[in-house]
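User: Can you recover a sequence for this backbone? Please restate the input before giving your answer.

Assistant: Of course. Working from this structure:
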């Protein structure tokens, strides 16, 4: 046996004693079944729709003049109503109320109309995709049938590693 090892080493090969009962052969593939998994794939999509929008067309332009005039008139009326410290509070309350009324009167001539406006948003248009995750392979070697799970489809034949060791 030592002459065998020296010949093998002389030829540039290194052979471990543990590998002496091992060789490789070919087995016939009987069946290949793909193993599928389902994965969620996210794909954002743009969704658009038409929305009704109420708009106001300001015909006079700026309503500030009507608001200021209403505040002055309301303040003057409030000043007439109150007495003492109550006069100051009535003047302020009259000015605020008069300003609101003046603004409302100023907007009375504005046109109000409803129009359609295009609005868009991003939504998840994802889907599930079926992917092959591996293969269950059934193969026959020397009349015996074996099963293995592989990450590739081996085709019609598969290379097998055969190991022979003593039973005792």
């Amino acid at each position: 046996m030592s002459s065998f090892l020296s010949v093998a080493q002389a030829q540039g090969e290194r052979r471990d004693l543990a590998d002496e009962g091992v060789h490789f052969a070919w087995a016939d593939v009987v069946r290949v079944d793909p193993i599928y998994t389902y994965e969620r794939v996210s794909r954002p999509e743009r969704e658009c729709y038409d929305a009704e929008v109420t708009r106001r067309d300001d015909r006079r332009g700026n309503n500030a003049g009507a608001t200021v005039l209403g505040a002055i008139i309301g303040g003057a009326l409030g000043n007439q109503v109150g007495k003492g410290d109550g006069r100051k509070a009535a003047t302020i309350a009259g000015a605020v109320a008069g300003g609101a009324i003046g603004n409302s009167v100023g907007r009375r001539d504005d046109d109000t109309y409803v129009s359609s406006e295009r609005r868009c948003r991003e939504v998840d248009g994802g889907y599930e995709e079926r992917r092959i995750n591996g293969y269950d392979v059934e193969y026959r070697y020397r009349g015996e049938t074996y099963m293995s799970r592989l990450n590739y489809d081996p085709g019609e034949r598969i290379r097998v590693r055969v190991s022979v060791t003593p039973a005792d």
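That completes the design. Residues 44 and 124 are 5 Å apart (CA to CA).
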